[in-house]
From TrEMBL:
It comes from the Bacteria. Residues 1-19 form the signal peptide. This is Uncharacterized protein. Keywords: Signal.
Length: 166
């Protein structure tokens, strides 16, 4: 009878231990069978803004891909560059309905450009793909930027995929 009192707690511990091992096996099996989402996503429409330039006060530490959601934040980085003729006005941006994805490249005298822009929605992410190209040497330096205007209905976490060529 004394041994029965000792065996009962051991039996309970054994049952709990076995159950925990089974749960861990199920979790491991479930984790290992997760299927990755395909790389292809739905295209997100955007308008490329025209007639803006990167402010001279913006340091090179701001280079890269940025998501801008307010007019104030946009004005800290960019200024309008109105030109003569048709299409000379800067593209209008309504931050109540839209946000901006900006790509700012380093200042260079190698005729830099940002091309082949593509925006896709993959799960909760916005994936921006683009190509940065360095061309022929120039007698002056420029700082290229691409400004994409996107409707807020397509909002998501921004990720960039850059392909650079020299």
């Amino acid at each position: 009878m004394k041994y029965l009192y000792l065996l009962f707690p051991l039996a309970i511990v054994s049952l709990i231990s076995c159950n925990q091992t089974q749960n861990n096996k199920e979790a491991t099996t479930a984790d290992s069978t997760i299927v990755e989402q395909p790389e292809a996503g739905a295209d997100v429409p955007f308008t490329e803004a025209r007639n803006y330039f990167v402010n001279n006060t913006v340091g090179e530490d701001k280079n890269g891909t940025l998501k801008i959601e307010t007019q104030e934040a946009f004005n800290e980085l960019f200024s309008p560059a109105t030109t003569m003729g048709e299409g000379g006005m800067p593209t209008e941006i309504d931050f109540k309905k839209q946000f901006v994805i900006a790509v700012i490249s380093p200042t260079s005298d190698l005729n830099p450009s940002i091309d082949s822009l593509s925006l896709k929605k993959i799960n909760s992410d916005l994936v921006l793909e683009f190509k940065e190209t360095m061309g022929d040497k120039q007698s002056f330096s420029t700082r290229p930027a691409a400004i994409l205007i996107v409707d807020k209905q397509f909002d998501g976490n921004l990720k960039a995929d850059v392909k650079s060529t020299l």
